[in-house]
Amino acid sequence: VNTLWRSSLLWLVLGVLFIALMALLSVLVSSAAGAAGAGLGAYVLLSIGGIWNPLNSYSPAGITGQAMSIASGAEVPTSFWAVTTSLVLSLALVCLAAMLFRRKEL
Q: Residue 47 to residues 43, 61, 75, 83, 102: CA-CA distances in angstroms?
């Protein structure tokens, strides 16, 4: 049960990151389809970036692989840096989206 919770919490952190990213992209891109496409492109780039070991260990790019490894019962080194950078990046993205939205004309 512990492995299931750890894996689920890693996916939750990744979800929070992508919600923050999509909030920023929705402010930057005027069409909803364009923002969705940019978000999908960001997910693809993040997945490809997870192949490189330093990026996999210290950034949000490693969360998907770590979550799958934990769920399968494999030993995974600590996820501290991946979670920390994801949450800090999420906070920065939300702050940037709020600042840009305030300046935008409705």
A: 6, 6, 21, 16, 32
Tokens of 46: 């993040």
Q: What does the pLDDT read at residue 1?
A: 59
Catalogue the long-range contacts made by 9-14 (C-beta closer than 8 Å, 24 or more residues apart): 10/63, 10/66, 10/67, 10/70, 10/79, 10/82, 10/83, 11/63, 11/67, 13/60, 13/63, 13/83, 13/86, 13/87, 14/60, 14/63, 14/64, 14/67, 14/86
Q: Name the pTM for this structure.
A: 0.88
Q: Are 35 and 25 in contact (CB under 8 A)?
A: yes
Plot region of 73 (φ>0 → left; ψ -120 to 50 → alpha; else → beta): left
